[in-house]
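can u pls check wat happens w/ 2'-monophosphoadenosine-5'-diphosphate
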Amino acid sequence: MKKWYAVIGDPIAHSLSPYMHETWFKENGVDAAYIPVRVEPADLEKAFLALRTLGVSGFNITLPHKESILPMLDRLDETAAVMGAVNTVVFDGKQYAGFNTDGDGFVQSLFAAAVDLDVKVLVIGAGGAARGIAFALKRAGFADIVIANRTVERAEELAQDIDGSALTLQQAENGLGEFGIIIQTTSVGLSKDQALPISLENIKPGSIAADIIYNPMETPFLLKAKEQGCITINGIGMFVYQGAIAFEKWTGIKPDTEKMMELITNKLGGQYVNK
Ligand code: ATR
């Protein structure tokens, strides 16, 4: 029987996940469908029951359900448990298992740009996204990870969990030249008018500046970093790789990420708002 998968979230209409997974199903000759479903927060439990009843083989979860889905699942992998958030669910015929592929997706996109594990890494932000990335950086073997956040207590908490250290945004700004990789995970930068989370005056030319946002493809943070001579990485890689890890969990197939990066970039080119 034809398998089917879904992504649930609210809003969901602009998600590129259906396009990405359906393209990969086609490319790999897998007879399956992938459907976006808008689920309001109050309906999550009912929606999960409906997905189960209708025989979903797996699904992705996006905002605002990544945390609230946890108690409904039969088991969680270690990363999802530590993060307290799930973005991928796999049904093995008996149980619904929750995974979080966001952090590893980000780190894979970083490795695609060839990085050195000995450089000092700065993560700006300490929310859910920063948490996933910080744990994945630690697992990947980065030795020196520093978290800077507006609310420094949150930075301290996350730093403690990954044996890193914490800074205020001001301290990060002053010492920016020490870092070889700077990762922007805050919601600042979604639009051109918003300020940068920190000033990039002291950034070291040649260092890597990464943003998890992919629309706009070039956030003010990335534009400024490029101006300062940095290598920039936008959020398209993270999006594609987190999807590729989920796809492999569902099908056992490693999809073509290189081609997908190009397809997604082209797709976003039309709606590039940062001009
Ligand atoms: P997500 O799960 O997407 O990471 P989140 O948990 O709400 O979202 O976290 C948002 C992050 O952006 C936090 O690090 C937040 O800083 P605080 O912990 O101090 O709230 C950061 N952030 C949001 N708006 C910001 C702003 N105007 N300046 C600096 N940091 C900001």
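Residues 125-130, 149-151, 154, 185-188, 197 surround 2'-monophosphoadenosine-5'-diphosphate (CB under 6 Å).
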